[in-house]
Structure formats: C-alpha cells, structure tokens
Amino acid sequence: MIAEEIKKIHSELPEGVRLCAVSKFHPAEAIMEAYGAGQRIFGESRVQELLEKTGHLPVDIQWHFIGHLQTNKVRQLIGKTSLIESVDSERLLTLIDRESEKAGVVTRVLMQLHVAKEETKFGFSPDELLEYFRERRFETLKATHICGVMGMASNTDDMERVRQDFRLISDTRRSILEAAPDLRGFDIVSMGMSGDWHIAVEEGSTLVRIGTAIFGERQY
User: Fold this and answer.
1) 220 located within any domain
2) What domain range is 138 assigned to?
3) pLDDT tier at 121 (50, 70, 90 boundaries)?
4) Number of folded domains in the chain?
5) Are 116 and 165 in contact (CB under 8 A)?
6) Is 109 helix (H, G, I), strand (E, B) or coil?
7) Whether the Cβ atoms of residue 213 and residue 18 lie closer than 8 Å to each other
8) Do the domain assignments include residue 160?
9) Residues 170, 22: Cα–Cα separation, whole Å
10) What are the helix (H) ranges across the chain?
11) 62, 46, 61, 101: which is closest to 78 by C-alpha?
12) How far is Cα 15 from Cα 188, in angstroms, rounded to an integer?
C-alpha cells in the first residue's frame, strides 16, 4: 500500500513539485517500503527519532526536520539534515548558524510562516519575515542558507480559508524577493499536507509534506 501511494502521489505532482514523505512515528520498515518505490525525502519532527533512523537507513535519504526545534537540540541536529524546514524565530536561526559554522557545514533552512488561525502554531508573521529581509539581517549568516518558506494552513474544513492561507504564504515569498531581489536559491515553498496538498500546489507549493495518506495513521 505504501509503495502504491508513493507512486500515485508522484504521478499527480506537477513537474518541479517534490514530495516529503512524513515518516515521523513510523518504523524503518515503512520507510524502506517507500524508499523501494523511489522516495528519497523523508520528514521527521523529533531530533532523537531522526538520529536513530539515520543510523540504520540508506545514506542517500534526504532528511527534512519539520517539527518545532528546541534550541537545546540544535547541536545534535547539525550535519544530519538535508533541510531544516521549521526555523520559527531569529534566535533559533542564529543558533543554527553558529553551530553550523563550528561544525564546518552549511545548513539549509526554511523560514516558518504563521498564517493559521490557531494560536498554538509557531513561526514568523508575514510582516515580521518581510521586515527581516527588508533590513537584510540575513547578511550576518555565515553557515546557513535560507532556501525559502514553510507554512501550514488553518486546521479547518473551510477550504477557502485554507486556500487563502496558502496564497498568503506564496505571496509573502514573492514580496521577500521583491524586497531583496539579489537573494539566491530562495525558491522553496513548503506547504500542503495529506488533506490539502492539491490546493497548496495550485497556490504555488514546490514541496508537499504528506504522511497519513502514505503511511496510514501514526504509530505512537
């Protein structure tokens, strides 16, 4: 079933849109079934779980960290990911940059936008993120490459609200590029999950994060 779902999603994704298979809380066997179907990007939300899986799964897997990253876990994660998608504060970004420089690596990250109506979500408001780039504060980074933005839509059955949230994420990235047109490689828009990824792609997503539709319900 996992392999079939992977192939189905890949066949439906437009050219230029990639799939991050959200493997958090799922065992290595499930990941290997997806891997066997050609999937290489996997998303984890807990540092310890990601580190355990990297130890005994194929080395060509591109691990994306997609959960809330606590500052005391940053050092453990540096050098272990292809992309940290969930940079939700300037403090966290600074710490990632410092630890990356110490480790002699360049860490690729996405800036997390908070556009959903839930208060519990993390991230920058569109205005905060736009100000960060307008003021060119990214120029202080030494070992971090900001590759784009990530965000989640409101948890609602109102698909028009979901579409508006995705549109705001895409529009914010465009506004950032207008404010800092010399940005290079700022081309990832990570948005869309199992229940809403088709809408996300219509609104400009270049990377969808799908878990439940591939692996079934989480195994806690």
Assistant:
1) no
2) 2-215
3) confident
4) 1
5) yes
6) strand
7) no
8) yes
9) 22
10) 2-12, 28-36, 47-55, 74-77, 90-103, 126-134, 159-179, 197-202, 212-215
11) 101
12) 14
